[in-house]
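U., I forgot to send this yesterday:
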Amino acid sequence: MLAVGSGGQSVDWIARNAIGWMTYHRDPDVQRSRHSMWLAAVNRLPTPALRAFDVAMQLELTAHAETPATALPLGYSTGRHAASALATGQARGRYATRQSEPQLRTPGA
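Result:
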């Protein structure tokens, strides 16, 4: 079972009973905190094992590769270069560090 959201269960329960946890898109700092919480729950298992962690998010890819990432309610509108930086951070089991994180624009700002 792959858990999507928490369904009222604790993160420890999900770590014991699921092969992974998929959460909804959040601000990168909040998402890093969720990932750390997940790793801690997995490490508390009697026999820690690989457990997946992923994020469901909206990705609106623009026609221009250089378009910076703009926050959407559940994801980003972005060009391919910023999208690549976001995906690279996720593939490493973490979100992009502040140094490599694309600059996000808030609509209307």
